[in-house]
Specification:
Strand order of the largest sheet: 7-2-8-1-9
CATH architecture: Alpha-Beta Complex
CATH superfamily: ComB-like
Helix content: 25-40%
Shape: globular
Distance between the termini: 23 Å
Strand content: 15-25%
CATH topology: putative 2-phosphosulfolactate phosphatase
CATH class: Alpha Beta
Largest sheet: 5 strands, parallel
Amino acid sequence: MVIDVLHAPAEYAALVAQDLPDRVCVVFDVLRATSTLVTALALGAASVRAVASIEQALKERSRDPDCLLAGERGGLRIGADQAGGVAFDLGNSPRELTRERVFGRRIVMTTTNGTLALQACARAKVVVAGAFLNLDAVAAHLQSMPDARVLLIGSGTGPEAAWEDSIAAGALCDRLAGPGTELGDAAMLAMAAWRGVGADLAGALGRGRNGRRLLAHPDLRDDVAWCAKRGCWSVVPTLDGTGAFIS
């Protein structure tokens, strides 16, 4: 297995030169898009489609009026004033989700960074949504593909890297490191960062820029500890042939 990491959206131009159809991509947006996506599928959602814009989400709603719209701009749920009079059903918090709310439902999601990252690697052989919430399941899934060329992608903040995505990538590298695994330099940097985190994962997430922003918001602060839960879901959200993530 060969593992590389792209830490920031500014590096996505490198995807053009990557042989993506032969790559397995794991995308992290720990705070919070992939954590929310993972939770939705774990609670029984039929699928989650990641789209880049509010306009694309509204087009999906016009084709399927029963789908749920989820997403954020500026960290907050998209309101009717931002979406042509259509208020989104859900924001981008895994704590909003309940089995009763999402079971069997198709969800269309748009976020500032995470859904763009998920779309950026859509040409890959396999695309997986990763988070600390399902890290053990993702590691086991990759271990079943010992010859895979794996690219871990951090969704970042704006064009820059996000601390929480890099340490999540490093945690996965740590799980997969060993005989038969070749880590690129960026993967070794991520693993070193992860190994320096210590036992308080929630505290570590709170030190990053996104964590500090969420902690400063009374309605969102609890998302940090929620997204720091390790291995509580066994789903491995994978992009299917229709462009949606399923478990």
